[in-house]
Amino acid sequence: MKRLLGCLGLVLLLAMTPGLAVELDEVLSDTVLENRARELSAELRCLVCQNQSIDDSDAPLARDLRILVRKRLTEGDTDAEVIDFIVARYGEFVLLKPPFAPHTWALWLAMPALLLAGGLAIFIAHWRRQGALKVPLEPLSGDEQSKLERLLKDG
Amino acid sequence: MVAEVGHYALVLALAIAIAQSLVPLFGAHRGDGQLMRVGDTAALVQFALVLLAFFALMHAFVTSDFSVSNVWENSHSAKPMLYKVTGVWGNHEGSMVLWVLILAFFGACVSMFGGNLPDTLRARVLSMQGLISVAFLLFIIVTSNPFVRLDPAPVDGRGLNPILQDPALAFHPPFLYAGYVGFSMAFSFALAALIEGRVDAAWARWVRPWTLVAWMCLTLGIAMGSWWAYYELGWGGWWFWDPVENASFMPWLAGTALLHSAIVVEKREALKVWTILLAILTFSLSLIGTFLVRSGVLTSVHAFAVDPERGVFILVIMCLFIGGAFTLFAWRAPSLRSGGLFAPISREGGLILNNLFLTVGCATVLFGTLYPLVLEAVAGTKSSVGPPFFNLTFVPLMIPLLALVPLGPFLAWKRADLGAALQRLWVAAAISLGVAAIAGYAKFGGPVLAPFGIALGVWLIAGAFSDIAFRSKFGRETLGVAARRAFGLPRSAWGMAIAHAGLGVAIIGIVAVSAWRVEKIAVIKPGETMEVAGFELQFEGVVPRQGPNYNDEVGIFTARRDGNAFARLESAKRIYAVRQMPTTEAAIYTFWTGDLYVVIGDGSEQGRTVRAYYNPFAPFIWIGAVIMFLGGAVSLTDRRYRIGAPKRARHAAATGGA
Predict the structure, then answer these.
(1) Which of B32, B410, B505, B630 has a Cα-to-Cα distance from B335 of 20 to 30 A?
(2) Do A25 and A76 fall into the same domain?
(3) A7-18: pLDDT as tens digits
(4) A2 interfaces chain B, CB cutoff of 8 Å
């Protein structure tokens, strides 16, 4: 239990220490490449942290990954090639933006599907109500007719 | 001794809660007034007992009684008094006591202020509240007893997690819990209405203020957490789509939807079944949030101690309540009769659209939060769902909703004229487009969509005040008459306008920070300067400083603009003595137009790493949230909710329902 708590403490420590992320010596002189590197690293998870991107984390592993991303970029890789390279090494867990693949269809399509289903449900409910309104009204019976006349006269 | 009294009070509270959940329910079934009134007394007694337990725990913390295990684990004699007090809920056991205390408080409020509720409804509501209390008191007593003793008592404690030693974080849990637990009222009212088989305008009028209070507290609680993340985590981020944040955001979204759909029930007696469902869903999401955060399924600063037994217990509570509520719903909801008919383009239609977007948004967040857990359980693949996913799905979903918000109040009930509503908003539209043009010109070359985002915020603000202006006939009556009319408007109209405007203010902050923040990293030595967004920062050096229970390494900067020094900024690296954990204190200088944000990093031979940011309009995010809170507060003072005038309220309910 003590060990577990110790580990947890370490995780918390890594997770919560302030993000003194990108160090000056990592920054590329080419601003276009650097911007691409920043955008890519915001989408990559720091594997030893709690829900942080490598762009935000100051863990040593995150730094290694940042340097790796920049190395691949300066060697002329496209963004997709860099991502593929890192996923091949570290697995899909590293992607903060899950890919669109059969096992994530449910995730990505949930929002549009629910919006569509909700819209449809509202439409059907409305259509039904309209339908209910169009039921022809039965003519008043003689009793009701005389009651109505009486009311109108008294009114 | 005091701790034992606290423990005893908790057990007694459990016994009372059991009585509270059974006797009034039976009484309402039999129509026995005496049995029903047991609920009123029980709710008050239960609250008093939980309060006693809470104070007993607080006493142990304040007097640093380390013979209580919980105090030993989470406190230290050298801790400032503020954090000794707030440390009560800075741990798992204490936070659960706070949870139940707030729950019992809401129950006691029903018993004290619920005089104008029908007797059977009040009895059933109190019974449902009692049932929730039973579950959570049992949870505390069986798995999370805060009063466990240590023998022999240690000399000193292990200290509170330094991260929690912060004013905003100290008061973040009470507000968050008031929100979470506050939605239990809507839940209890929904279940009581299902048992009664009746939902009417009076019911909605009763549910709305409770939901509103819960929503206000949740808004403020979330804002505090986000503000804390902004100044404490040290890189100026304010929302991370972290599962724990999502756990609080989902009930907020559902609660916001509930707040709007209940209006339709109150005014038009339509959407009854949906509103009941939404009330159940909102509290279910609060329970899911409690489970996610407390069970340790998610590792984070909030999961104080990971203990599978507790996780399973909360899971069982959650399944019983959610499952039970939905079973009752499926059984009884078809018997509810719905009222008012309306055309698609009407106030009702607008509010339905609001509900569609909010609930789909809420479901999207739920999917994104749970997907990695489910995927790992089902397929064994570890995956991540992070900010990029939510930015691609949730954010686009909210844009049409926000764009439609100002239209809503201009639509008439039953059948509305869209053209006329748009015509009344032309001033607001012109102002927003003007601001977009100015923003686009000032920030030319920045993100293309950002000016439109700003315009969206301005559109919300201008739209909200167009509603007030139109209702009080500004421009058509003399200024004096119009002003008098404006003051005479119902408080709920003002509340709505203020809350919508607050949302607009927050949107402006969010868009500006996301699009136009400036970041500068430099390694500098004392005496050297760096530049960020037109400001000059001169590094004066680093001095050590001692706090009550920590040591600081303070970096001092002089900030200049156009050569004129305007501020001395201090950013510190802080080490807490007891736990040896480092934190960083950012230096933040706030202007009307944004924050200058400086963080000192580690040193080397070349100098210190310093990170400086300019976060345009960042404070607007939290100011917006506070304005939303105030809007809710204004709405709460509306005549028809006013407590202390039960006769009038009953009369109003009768005519309002007709």
Answers:
(1) B32
(2) yes
(3) 333 333 333 444
(4) no
